[in-house]
Write a structure and sequence with these properties.
single chain; alpha+beta; Rossmann fold; three-stranded antiparallel beta sheet
Length: about 290
């Protein structure tokens, strides 16, 4: 009896909801079409009669499915936990903290972009200046080397073969440099296989080729002629004569042939024990004195 009353009550509620929706739908249709639609003749008694007469029941598998869905929904609700009434205030606080952090992140990203653009611009300028300077140095090096050795060829080359195979052509200027020298009558080779005198003269040719790109009023050389024999000293002095018109040389030497090309000699002597004396001799004045 209790189950019947409960079913009757639920049926009343369902019919009330149905009539409400049906009346709204009918009203909308009437307002659009100006036609009257007859309301359905459904009652609780007719539903109960139909339910009992045809022995209608919910299928057991449907009940199991609904119970499983109910258990799943209850489990999800339990996972959600209690409602946090302060969530809105906490969200506002987090947003207040997030806004300046987001601004700082945007500033950092903009700074990184600016630095990246600056680095790219510097790289392009450096590449251009480097290649221009390398070409100018190679030109001067070839001229000086040919004058020192009476022929031959020397150059600075990029070590492109030592770079990874996938290196872009625009990045090959970053490779290292190798000094190649070919004195007159010899094969083109690296500096390491040359004699000591040839190495020194080749290195001096390179130094002066670089020096001529940004010349200074004077140049100081310290014992650069020490590994040279007499023949190579003559080549060294000819190189000094070649450049002496544009700058002043100050060099330290113990070689007689090198001293002969100087305009003035300065030395230190010790006539008495513990007492050093500076001696200065002008070779031009000494030549006039000898002529007399």
């Amino acid at each position: 009896m209790a189950r019947l009353e409960d079913a009757s009550e639920k049926a009343h509620d369902a019919l009330a909801q149905y009539y409400k929706i049906s009346s709204q739908h009918t009203h909308n249709n009437n307002s659009n079409n100006n036609e009257q639609v007859p309301s359905p003749n459904i009652s609780v008694s007719s539903l109960l009669t139909d339910f009992i007469a045809y022995d209608r029941r919910v299928r057991p598998e449907k009940i199991i499915e609904l119970e499983t869905e109910l258990a799943s929904l209850e489990q999800q609700l339990n996972k959600i936990g209690a409602v946090n009434l302060a969530a809105v205030a906490e969200l506002a606080e987090v947003n207040d903290r997030l806004e300046p952090l987001a601004q700082q992140t945007a500033d950092i990203a903009a700074s990184m972009n600016t630095l990246t653009d600056a680095i790219t611009s510097i790289d392009e300028t450096t590449k251009t200046l480097f290649m221009q300077t390398l070409d100018a140095v190679n030109t001067e090096l070839a001229n000086l080397f040919a004058k020192v050795f009476g022929g031959g060829h020397a150059s600075l080359t990029l070590n492109v073969d030592d770079m990874p195979t996938n290196t872009a052509k625009s990045e090959q200027w970053r490779a290292g440099l190798t000094l190649m020298a070919q004195p007159k009558g010899k094969r083109n080779s690296r500096l390491a296989v040359l004699s000591g005198g040839e190495k020194t003269l080749t290195a001096l040719s390179l130094i002066f080729a670089i020096f001529k790109q940004h010349p200074a009023p004077f140049c100081v050389l310290d014992e650069v002629d020490a590994p040279l024999d007499d023949a190579n000293v003559e080549r060294f002095t000819s190189l000094i004569h070649e450049l002496a018109g544009d700058l002043q040389f100050i060099f330290i030497s113990h070689n007689k042939l090198a001293m002969q090309i100087a305009d003035e000699l300065k030395g230190i002597t010790m006539p008495n024990a513990g007492i050093s004396t500076l001696v200065s001799v002008s070779l031009e004045e000494a030549a006039h004195y000898i002529d007399r």
